[in-house]
Amino acid sequence: WRALETTALYKLLAQQGVVTGRVIQEVTAEIADPFKAQLLETDIGGALLRINRLVFDTDQHPVEYLSLYLSPTKSRILMNISADQIDSAESGLVAHDVSHGPAN
């Protein structure tokens, strides 16, 4: 763990022979509880961005899972998508998890 104080995780993984293959990333929103609000210097009950990231090596073995919380007033998400992937599932999907309730 001490190595993480001075060296990025992905560099340490590469030094161990891990070759990063792909990343699945999900961006959602969450309400700030007292603990997260204090850490992120935001209001309790305020909106937070939550990123869940799963990193795989080139053999499709998971090598990292990360949940990251961001204050939307202090952070932003940047994505670099090539033109040939701009309208594809590889560049990202919008998933609506809405229950429709009983039909009338």
Describe the structure.
By secondary structure, this protein is of the alpha+beta class. It is 13% helix and 31% strand. The chain contains 2 helices and 3 strands. Strands 1-2-3 form a 3-stranded antiparallel beta sheet, with no helix packed on it. β2 (47-57) and β3 (62-70) form a beta hairpin. The chain is globular and about 40 Å long. The termini are far apart. The mean pLDDT is 87.
What does the secondary structure layout of this molecule look like, with pairings?
Blueprint: H1 9-15, E1 20-31, H2 34-40, E2 47-57, E3 62-70
Antiparallel strand pairs: 1-2, 2-3
Describe the structure concisely:
This protein has 104 residues and is α+β, with helices and mostly antiparallel strands. It is built from 2 helices and 3 strands; from the N terminus they run αβαββ.
Task: Supply the key terms.
104 residues; alpha+beta; 2 helices; 13% helix; 31% strand; globular
Written as H for each helix and E for each strand, in order along the chain, the element string is: HEHEE
Integer-rounded radius of gyration? 18 Å
Strand tally is: 3
- What's the arrangement of strands in the largest beta sheet? 1-2-3
Instruction: Kindly name the structural category.
Output: alpha+beta
Indicate the proportion of strand residues.
Answer: 25-35%
DSSP helix fraction = 10-25%
Which residues form runs of ≥5 with pLDDT under 50? none
Overall pLDDT level: 87
Number of helices: 2
Largest sheet: 3 strands, antiparallel
Categorize the overall geometry. globular
Separation of the first and last Cα atoms: 57 Å
